[in-house]
Amino acid sequence: MPYKQLDQDSVIEYIKSVPEMKQVFSSFDNLNVSEIGDGNLNFVYNVTNNEKPKETVIVKQAVPFLRIVGESWPLPKERMNFEIMALQHAAKYCPALVPEIYHASHEMCLIIMQNLTDHKVIRGEIIQGKYFPRLAEDTSTYMAENLFHTTDWFLDHKTKKELVGKFINVDLCKITEDFVFTNPYEKSDTNSFNPELTQENIDFIQKDSELKLAVAEMKYKFMNNAEALLHGDLHIGSIMANEDETYVIDPEFAFFGPIGFDIGAFIGNLIMAYFSHEHRQKLLGNEPYQYRKWLLDTVEATWELFEQKFDKLWADHQEKENLPYWQYEGGKEAAAEQRKRFIRKIFSDTVGFAACKMMRRILGLAKVADIADIEDLKERARIERMTLKMGKQMVINRDSYSSIQELTALAKELSPLV
Amino acid sequence: MPYKQLDQDSVIEYIKSVPEMKQVFSSFDNLNVSEIGDGNLNFVYNVTNNEKPKETVIVKQAVPFLRIVGESWPLPKERMNFEIMALQHAAKYCPALVPEIYHASHEMCLIIMQNLTDHKVIRGEIIQGKYFPRLAEDTSTYMAENLFHTTDWFLDHKTKKELVGKFINVDLCKITEDFVFTNPYEKSDTNSFNPELTQENIDFIQKDSELKLAVAEMKYKFMNNAEALLHGDLHIGSIMANEDETYVIDPEFAFFGPIGFDIGAFIGNLIMAYFSHEHRQKLLGNEPYQYRKWLLDTVEATWELFEQKFDKLWADHQEKENLPYWQYEGGKEAAAEQRKRFIRKIFSDTVGFAACKMMRRILGLAKVADIADIEDLKERARIERMTLKMGKQMVINRDSYSSIQELTALAKELSPLV
């Protein structure tokens, strides 16, 4: 079927034409369609059987332009292919942590998938102070499973290289290159600031050579290290969850990049949430301690669980492979040392990428509601300044943190956990 | 034209069918064909007009197997595409340093190019103690031009990524992964040794954990850092030269990899030549000093000229681009610091890769004639041991050399320049 942009009516016709939909819907006679896209990139339809509301799917279609701007900003609709391929890949290693795919069409740049009716995007929930007891456990599993199983440690040389080629994601990588690693650190029309930030606050980032050299190194790493298949945009707006389940969604930025980028995105977002709740918990009428402690505990647990799980997957694989390379007296210990050094390097990258993800949310185009929606602009600026300060220290000193606790200690130094 | 394996007769028919050949040959009536392939991978024909010997071309065709073994070892003939693309790419930036391409056919996996009648493959010549006064100058130009112009520092994000995809060279990278980074460092049927090497000499490499961790890191870097378009096999058997001109040939291993790999291949080969001439110069009846000094001078000059040229290309490009990112007080100095740090990292990689290229030539399948053809096996083993010793120190300590002179000093420590 050649590409055609669907609307509220034609989406029903399309649903009817897809054989797999007969497994989901007992009848097509009374389907309700509502467009629920957040409006940035794609059209997202919720299609539900009015008579049996449990019969429901999400239809997500890419259009050949940036939806938020309109047809004047072309963006290849083929970006949906990356989301399809990445979801299919994740379904192999952690099916419980990604929405089930019912149907995908590369021609139509469209995917029909499980409607997560009992789950919410966690950013909004975290802003409200909701706890997600499984967040560290599930996110670390998602990352360890997806990342390990797409490295050269696991894949054979041919499969890996062919996947790297299939996942060359020019346009969406460019968005990250510009909006995470470039524009926020320079004078750029795409930036926007809280007016309560001073020029000095901005220069603190944009005119500091050590910081800029460090950010440029992270950008180079992002562009040149095809280590593993990343989600590519793993902030807390890409996770839907409730108390019992966690789903990672929207992997359209997927490509082969440095492992630390995904982990850093997630951890950086939690640190910003921690800062924001210095203010928000008071607004909510709570003592800030408990929720903010949970946020930092989640940062620590995410890294520690990721580290354990990645190492375990790799160690088990090493044992199964039993490579001749490590078959000598002391070889087993050396193989363990290899894992240790490699994970140490992932940690440095994680800290560096988390820092870039934090600073860009203050000075760049795309904000996080956690901080940007704070109405008291002076209070918001205070939190923005601590975010910038932490980001700067992190990216410059990324190789010198020896544990995740040193990172959370820095957060507590800037914003005491009381 | 669909693929067909050419032979001595059909190569003439093919030549006649190629329009461009009318520019080379004034007549097709008296062509002489001789097969001159070294027998490893491809068929290489020298086609010359008997009446006018200056009318001559090289026809190189890949066959769908490893020629040295036969049809039982399949190797995709499409590998020739990488050579074609790499030669065409190099012709853009250093046309004087690669053979001119007259005709290339992706279907026939074939290239017709300039016959370098006045030039010889330099390995054999260096074994004979010949000087190549332009070697450092030209090789450093070849590397700086080709490498710089395929990095993200020069190419736009889209061109770079698309080129990375086009140059995914699964099969030939696998040869390097196995024979440069794996088999020589483990018990492997593909290895072969000088019988005068002791088990202790072999264990010195194969059972040393620090060395093996370092080699594994270099292998990972080779497989995961798509920095620039490499030649991929830049040893002194891939260079043809005379006193006035230098040509780099045979880039069929081309792919996007770490910059230091090409430089390391070349420098590692010269260091082995230096060691071999401790013995060879005496055989040739010379005082060893002068020629061996030239070899080490060439090592030093190659790195220093590469460093200067790469930095100059980049600095000029930075000035032309004048990125907003560096537009602030101190930004120009920071951009210079970026170049310095980056080149420092290339140097570490160069040392590490040179080391792997050296050690594998002693313990692995493919030898270098410089050392392996030394008839006195005890003398050969002595030189092999110094090569292994130097390689081991280099790869383990690759981050701690601060100049190329420290590297040549190490060579002189192991084999005094007297």
TrEMBL record, chains A, B:
It is an enzyme of class 2 (transferase). It comes from the Bacteria. Residues 77-272 form the Aminoglycoside phosphotransferase domain. GO terms for biological process: methionine biosynthetic process. GO terms for molecular function: ATP binding; S-methyl-5-thioribose kinase activity. The keyword Kinase applies. Keywords: ATP-binding, Kinase, Nucleotide-binding, Transferase. Its EC number is 2.7.1.100. Pfam families: APH. The keyword Nucleotide-binding applies. Homodimer. NCBIfam families: MTRK. PANTHER family: METHYLTHIORIBOSE KINASE. Belongs to the methylthioribose kinase family. This is S-methyl-5-thioribose kinase. The lineage of its organism: Bacteria, Pseudomonadati, Deferribacterota, Deferribacteres, Deferribacterales.
